[in-house]
Amino acid sequence: MKCAELMRNLEIFAPLEMAESWDNSGLIIGDCEKDIKRILVALDATDDVIDEAIDLKADLIVTHHPMVFGSIKKVTSETHLGRKILKLIKNDIGHYAMHTNLDWTNGGTNDKLSQIVGLKNVEALRHGNNEWPEGSGLGRIGRLEKPLSLEEFSKTIKNELGLKTIRVVGELDRKIEKVAVCTGSGIEFMDDAVKIGADVFITADLRYHESQKAIERNICLIDATHYASENVIIPTIKKYIESVSNETDGKIEVIMSNVDGQVFKDI
After folding, report:
1. What is the C-alpha to C-alpha distance for residues 210 and 207, in angstroms, rounded to an integer?
2. pTM of the predicted structure, to 2 decimals
3. Which listed site, 112, 134, 165, 245, has its alpha carbon 20 to 30 Å from 264?
4. What distance in Å separates the CA atoms of residue 102 and residue 237, rounded to the nearest whole number?
5. Residue 106: exposed, middle, or buried by beta-carbon count in 10 A (0-12, 13-18, 19+)?
6. Is 3 helix (H, G, I), strand (E, B) or coil?
7. Residues in Cβ contact with 42 at an 8 Å cutoff, skipping those fewer than 6 apart
8. Each residue of 4-60: pLDDT tens digit?
9. Could you give the CA distance from residue 179 to residue 107 in angstroms, rounded to a whole number?
10. 237 Rama sector, left if φ>0, alpha if ψ -120 to 50, beta otherwise
């Protein structure tokens, strides 16, 4: 499959018009006419992931986070980013990112996390453009099948996401039924969760004063970590690419990265 055709398919799932204005989703590095036969899927195009792609002889790395956000005036070996870009180009490996458009789209990061934590009757926390596909929106809100204490629910999330520890804000014996989620750094949407009556808001990258505000607003918080809350989408991306490649003459081999990108360590 040509890279351009793959891009069209990926943008049916997560249209680029859904991406935030500051974002850089889409093809970051690569040739639209290149034949894509093997893809490595990861959350980030880190050095380890790029080396893994080279070892696998991958044609393309598809990630959630873009390797490049702002403008670049020089690509040289004098910067870390420059070295990564040069390494990809020298090894003829492209880089495609599905970032905030994958957060907004139906079936994207927030829907996957909602499914994993066991939410029912899920709706968007913040609705998007009316012209976007049905079900689009940022964050999700739903209900648990049966109420759990904050402690019980937090332990469930910890186990489901493979975390050794998890940070929680709120009384551990509080009953949790209505749950809001926003993968990655979503604390700016806490007010949306409060207005809709959520008992707890699951997101990541929590800070002290934001957590104080949550206590004042009578909402619990669970920090599922940026990596763990978003890495759940990797199998979905793999499955989607495999499904669209089956419909063409050239089937693509899709491999999920074995690199553990979790930067926080439990000691």
Report:
1. 6
2. 0.96
3. 112
4. 10
5. middle
6. helix
7. 49, 52, 61, 62, 63, 234, 256, 257, 259, 261
8. 999 999 999 999 999 999 999 999 999 999 999 999 999 999 999 999 999 999 999
9. 18
10. alpha
Q: Summarize pLDDT for 225-237 with one digit per residue, the tens.
A: 999 999 999 999 9
Are 117 and 202 in contact, with CB atoms under 8 Å apart? Answer: yes
Two tokens at 102?
Answer: 């994958």
For residue range 178-218, list pLDDT tens digits in order.
999 999 999 999 999 999 999 999 999 999 999 999 999 99
3-13 helix and 234-245 helix, angle to the nearest 10 degrees = 120
Sign of CA dihedral 232, 159, 51, 81: positive
Q: Indicate the pairing of strand 38-42 with strand 119-127.
A: unpaired
**Eight-class DSSP state of 35:** B
Q: Which residues pair with 221 in a beta bridge?
A: 169, 201
- How far is residue 145's CA from residue 133's CA, in Å, rounded to a whole number? 27
pLDDT of residue 228: 98
- Identify each DSSP E strand in the chain by its residue range: 26-29, 38-42, 60-63, 94-97, 119-127, 137-149, 167-169, 175-181, 200-203, 220-223, 253-256
DSSP string for residues in 78-140: TSHHHHHHHHHHHTT-EEEE--HHHHHSTTSHHHHHHHHTTEEEEEEEEE--TTSPTT-EEEE
Chain centre distance of CA 196: 23
Residues 6+ positions from 243 with CB-CB distance below 8 Å: none
